[in-house]
Write the structure tokens for this entry.
Amino acid sequence: MLRIRGMVGEVPVDLTVELDDSDWARLGSALSGQAPVAQSETVASASAAKPVNQDDALWQVAKDLLRKAGQLSGPDLLEQLEALTGSAAAGKRLLVRLRHSSEVKVASGGDTPLYSWIG
């Protein structure tokens, strides 16, 4: 577990991040100066051979899903991500990751947010 405390502007931040063994391994690799895996080397489909890091493969598939759709409402996107991962929690994690991605624009669409691919 990693705890981050500080300020964002005038807003106090107290964030706890839980990392599993694979997250710690990736962090350790990054800190030891090993080159990160290039995007072109990641698995682009969850149906391909089992990837070394399934989280990265699911992330690529989630981005491809939104890119191909162009725009999806939050509930529709979450439903597809849950179907992709087989887990509501994993689907929500991908949705949050998409929300904070520089390749995605999130706009208010009335009652639900609209996720748009901007690449």
Q: What stands out?
A: The mean pLDDT is 79. The longest helix spans residues 54-69.
